[in-house]
Amino acid sequence: VKLRFSNRQVEAQPGDTVAAALYRAGQRIFTRSFKFHRPRGLMCCAGKCPNCLMNVDGVPNVRTCVTPVRDGMTVRSQNAWPSLDLDFLSAAGAMSWAMPVGWYYKTFTNPTAWHLAEPFIRRAAGLGEVLPTTDCEYEHTWMHTHTAVVGGGRAGIAAALDAAEQGETVTLIDDQPVLGGGTRYDRSAGQLAADVLERLESHPSVTILKNSACFGLYEGCLLGALQRQPHAGAVERLIHVRSKRIVVATGQYEVPLLFENNDLPGVMLSSAALRLMCLYRIAPGKRAVVIGDGARAAEVASALADFGIDLVASLPHVDVIRAKGSKHVSSIQATSGTFACDLAVVCGPMVPDAGLVAQAGGKLTWQESAGAFIPADLPENVLVTGSAAGQAQANGQLPTGAGKTSLVCFCNDVTARDLCDGIAEGFDRIEMLKRYTTSTMGPCQGRMCQLAAIGLCSRETRRAMSETGVTTSRPPAPSISLGALAGPRHHPIRRTPLHHLHEESGAVWLDMGEWRRPRYYNSGAATESERACVEREYRAVRERVGLIDVSTLGKLDVRGPDAGKLLDQVYTHRFSDLKSGRVRYAVMCDEAGILLDDGTISRLDEHRYFVTTTTGNLEFVFQTLKLAMATNRWAAHVTNVTGGLGSMNIAGPLARAVLEKLGVRDLETKSFPYMACRESVIGSVPALLLRIGFVGETGWEIHAPAESAEDLWNTLLIAGAEFGITPFGVEAQRLLRLEKKHVIIGVDTDALTNPYQADLAWVAKLDKAEFSGKTALCAASVSEQPDRLVGFILPGDSVPEDGAPVVLDGRPAGRVTSSRYSPARQAAIGLAWVPLQQSEEGATINVRVRGQLVSAIVTHESFYDPEGARLRQ
Amino acid sequence: MSFLIRCPQCGERSVYEFRFGGEDCSSPAKDAPEADWMTYRYVRKNINGVQSEWWFHRAGCREWLQAVRDTVSNEVIETFLPGERPA
Q: Taking CB atoms and an 8 Å cutoff, what residues of chain B touch A766?
């Protein structure tokens, strides 16, 4: 297996992690620290500390010590310039005296100072760089299991087998590539029974997730797990594991001891040294000093000796003064002398990894005898077992030893002195100290530093450990990438039944919510500008006949004995008295009288209505109707038939001729008047015809079964060819409707608009006994509205942008919501919000168009055919 | 928020399948004073404890249901279809 690292090839062995392969190849500096760019080497080898974060295949901040190698991987360092070994930014370390705790808060109180300093700080401080153009793929999946076991060590495996043998489905989640936990490298962790892994892996009701870190335990026994490299096509997979019961068997982890330069490469935790030796057969050094007390130190020393590493000295923690060396440890200075070495193995305290329990609401209480915070008061359905429960704890002295410049927080370069200074400045509670010093707030989320920070706080404030307490645990810990949370880059698009026909006709697309619609058609003539295309489509509708796909309209079938009552309640108009075969405009308001949606409602027969909604509001309208049914216990059925119908609108003075040619009869106004509907057959396709006129011409909205929509569209185009029928898109439709001064709710109106402001007073039927928003509309009908939505005409062809301000006395007093150039008026027309005193017919308003103030005339009439004569022809 | 809601028709499901429909508050009488209507439109009790509320099972049976939930612990104490509260 080969991987690329900083322009060189590194040979790796199968089973290696990236960090192990690099270590074997002689790399000792893995990162530069966040603030002072101090060199950092492997410290925990378990994915807990921040020391091995690198960019792997374009993904920043990857914990390389738990990332298995793959052939052809590209690994780059982060936060170092020009390289890890020679980093000029480490000059920041010489300035550390100028950056005491809280300097950031104290220095940049002046915005100018901040703006001057920001570019430098941004460049010098930080972690990996997130590239906006990354093509990494992330996945989301869901799993359901009876028992979820977190941690694949001895205790986790036992718990999983136990549950599985009782007949439960079990999911075992482990953050390492291989199960076994401490038993794989640490004699003190004991051994797994010979066949236990085989029994577990072959058990039919056990699912095992390896390389998966649990970052959160949420209510309802939901675990968030992040699986690294689930397969070659994905970087990470976020798994939601829902269970009935969670067993936390996350074990324990070792944390550093405090002495000066305790972060030098070559100073590593004993568990890391054991991992390198036992898991990857790598000698972590040649001449080692063991720092630590008691049985653990003796055990580690013997393991090092077994591996053929010279043991220079074994020093108790209290004796150690500092590690020496420029980029790697070269000796350890202690009270008993200075010991030359290339490896310092630190036997730090063991911390039960009970963060998940604390996240879920469990308490962590200090136990003096164990020297650790032990989980207690477990939340419902959460169990803790093994060393995560504190069963193995026997820590000696706390890591609060000498050395003011000892690093406590490796992530953010916070020293023991910084913490002491913070306490002296009054931030003497652990939660405040955390926020002031940012200790425990880095990528390791306090795993490496929390115990030391609490110990120091307890010592400095002379409060007991139990009183000092722990900081609040919150997910996600360990930190996870935003890409994993965002999930797959897959955006489903809804296509209308006519999509492929539009594609063949050269549609230029417009995304509208989940739908994709033709904006306009550019049929072959590539030189034709958008404006020319739209105007061609516009003229076809005004002068001959046009055809538009309106399948995206929300369509609901409402039927049942209470259907009329239901619609009366939800919409402002009356529908219970609508005659069969008639259509009525429908407006929906909320209880505060705010315009929510509009559409048409057709009565097909006594108990059956056909309701259309705007494209984006279908779901909302559906839920609103269902809620009214539920609260009033009405007998009705609301069925969403949007996807089942292909819909199109044929409009223009020759629309009738096209339909008549296809054998549809009785289309004359006296037998099929404006706002009437009829079920009919066009060609051979059964269809519902509504005679309505959004675009202001004689026209029919046609709803046909989706599977026949293409057939119908083609039939209409062929029959209409001799009349010059032209398909038109959304852009032409918007222009056509704007000439009719039809308001689009949600575009021209906002979350505070009532009908009286939008020239829609006629829609509120205040004589109706009861409907949603009636009391508010009654109040609005007699009160003066502070601003109005009006039409305006602006001579010339300079069209304001949507959102252009309306200016009164030099101040913005309103805004343009829609504006287009109107071929019918040979001027820019539009809709705008204006203050009341400027809202009368003929008033002059000033609109800012690309920096220039221009005068426009207010009108309340539609810009085209104000009497609506063409609609009714 | 990741608690479970027992839909009376579909069984126990993740809260993400549902749309929250707000507190259960009945509308005032038609001729009630405007102040009552103002309260109905704009004022919510925002109970810190057990409240009765509406949920819509968006990704399930697509029906409205009512739930009694402790807003502190997110424990859903009972759920039922409108008007079918068990005695």
A: none
